[in-house]
Structure to design on (202 residues):
């Protein structure tokens, strides 16, 4: 479901609905204000208080995101467009962000598709040349996460690449990961977390 809505839902919008939404969610206790750069907190925080301090807090209702039904079998969608490039996306439904298994999925992503030394990059980009590029994402749209690999191909024949991806996933399931490869993946995750860490204003 796209967060932008559908033509039907947009046609049903009224001024009253928009105002109700704004009062419900645009409250100071539901705002995250992020400032970066050469910021003087002694000067900026009084200004923030001036702009937002008079606003009243609102009772917030945290709606649980909808879950995703697990499929009984793999699903395949082929989209043909008038373009001169071929792309392949392979994805799996996974645990939610709050699950204790979420870190394992991040580690799995690092082992398979993060960086030039990852298994899929070495197999399908460097050695096999089945793909010209590889990217990955770990999305958390609701109660379930979604692990996805994105490939750009120089050939319209995607099925050998699909076989390679499935083979690497199965190999990861069957064989234990070596200590050096595991250490590399953990170091990569630690580096990503350090880059995301917020620097407080005060």
């Amino acid at each position: 479901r796209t967060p932008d809505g559908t033509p039907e839902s947009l046609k049903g919008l009224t001024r009253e609905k928009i105002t109700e939404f704004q009062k419900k969610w645009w409250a100071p206790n539901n705002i995250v204000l992020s400032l970066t750069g050469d910021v003087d907190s002694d000067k900026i925080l009084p200004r923030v208080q001036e702009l937002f301090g008079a606003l009243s807090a609102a009772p917030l209702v945290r709606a649980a995101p909808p879950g995703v039904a697990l499929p009984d079998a793999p699903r395949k969608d082929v989209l043909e467009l008038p373009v001169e490039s071929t792309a392949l996306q392979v994805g799996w439904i996974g645990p939610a962000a709050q699950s204790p298994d979420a870190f394992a999925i991040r580690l799995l992503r690092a082992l398979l598709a993060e960086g030039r030394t990852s298994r899929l990059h070495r197999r399908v980009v460097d050695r096999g040349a089945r793909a010209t590029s590889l990217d990955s994402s770990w999305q958390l749209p609701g109660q379930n996460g979604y692990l996805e690999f994105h490939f750009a191909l120089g050939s319209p024949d995607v099925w050998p690449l699909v076989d390679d991806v499935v083979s690497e996933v199965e190999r990861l399931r069957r064989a234990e990961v070596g200590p050096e490869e595991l250490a590399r993946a953990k170091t990569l995750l630690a580096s990503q977390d350090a880059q995301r860490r917020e620097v407080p204003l005060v």
